[in-house]
Amino acid sequence: MCGRFVVAKETGGITELFELDEVPQDYRPTSYNIAPTQQIGMIVEREIEGMPSRELHVGRWGLVPHWSKELPNAPLFNARSESVLEKPSFRDAALKKRCAIPASGYFEWQSLAGQKTPFYIHPEEGMLAFAGIYSWWRDPTKEQSDPTRWLLTCSILTKAASPALSEIHDRSPIFLSPDNLGSWLAPDYETSNELIAALGSESDEVASSLDFYEVSTAVGSVSNNNSSLIERV
Predict the structure, then answer these.
(1) How many C-beta atoms surround the C-beta of residue 163 within 10 A?
(2) Whole-angstrom distance, CA of residue 152 vs CA of residue 209
(3) Could you report the per-residue pLDDT of 47-90, keeping only the tens digit for each?
(4) Which one from 2, 45, 99, 154 is the annotated catalytic residue?
(5) By the 8 A CB rule, do 123 and 105 touch?
(6) Residue 175 and residue 55: Cα distance in Å, rounded?
(7) Catalytic residue selected from 22, 49, 55, 108
(8) CA 192, CA 194: separation in Å to the nearest integer?
(9) Core-most of 81, 147, 189, 228, by most CB within 10 Å?
(10) In this predicted model, what pLDDT tens digit does every residue of 146-179 receive, in sequence order?
């Protein structure tokens, strides 16, 4: 699974790395302890006048199905890739509303002998792109004229951890390689189980190149947010 991640890069670096055409002016991505329900950046691709446009939007981490009558008590921040096309909470979003979530790395807790030890998992250079899905939710408690009545939300797709990461946790995000990022974002097709299976195989290849090490237990509190959280202990 993925319950905390890091963005340790400024807007310009993310724009260049992911070849973005549009980014909100007020986007401030840097954070060392991003948790569910917080605002995060998500990359989507739209077709505008016959040309693809790769855009970054900011939304809530924790998908809210479009048919939900209220914000769920437990945020749906992860979606199991094995069942995402069948689960009512995710199915509609998973079919066509695909996104990528940029991250410098993420935290995972290893459980041994009743103790949980946090690890930071990251690429040696560049950034990760988590496969995600998104949804627009209409808040029924707000007036039709209220511009905040629409809420953009998202979830990160997860899979069984690759052999490279399974010693830490039995689940991991699906990592998009540079080669399949564009294919995942393309808006002109419906997601299939075959595509998700192929993504999973390529995700394992990305995982085999990642580095990880133990970090401070301070990451367990969302009130802690500084670069010391990703330092090796």
Answers:
(1) 9
(2) 32
(3) 888 788 999 999 999 999 999 999 988 899 999 999 999 999 99
(4) 2
(5) yes
(6) 19
(7) 108
(8) 5
(9) 81
(10) 989 999 999 999 999 999 999 999 999 999 999 8
Give the distance, in angstroms, between the CA of residue 117 and the centroid of all CA atoms in the same chain. Answer: 22
Between CA 82 and CA 45 the distance in angstroms is 24
Q: Is 99 a catalytic residue?
A: no
Task: Report the distance separating Cα 51 and Cα 60, nearest Å.
Answer: 28
- Concatenated DSSP letters of the chain: ---EEEE-S-HHHHHHHTT-SB--TT----EEEE-TTSEEEEEEEEEETTEEEEEEEEEEESB--TT-SS--SS-B-EEETTTTTT-TTTHHHHHH-EEEEEESEEEEEEEETTEEEEEEEE-SSS-EEEEEEEEEEE-TTS-TT-TTSEEEEEEEEEEEPPTTTTTT-SEEEPBPPHHHHHHHH-SSS---HHHHHHHHHHHHHHHTT-EEEE--GGGGSTT--SGGGGS--
Question: Is 205 known to be catalytic?
Answer: no
Give me the pLDDT at residue 81, please.
97
pLDDT of residue 1: 75
Contact 182, 127 (CB under 8 A): no
Do the beta carbons of residue 37 and residue 133 sit within 8 Å? Answer: no
pLDDT score at 113: 83
Q: Which of 128, 98, 119, 120 is nearest to 9 (CA)?
A: 128
At 188, which amino acid appears?
A: D
pLDDT confidence bin for 205, thresholds 50/70/90: very high
Span 134-141, mean pLDDT? 95
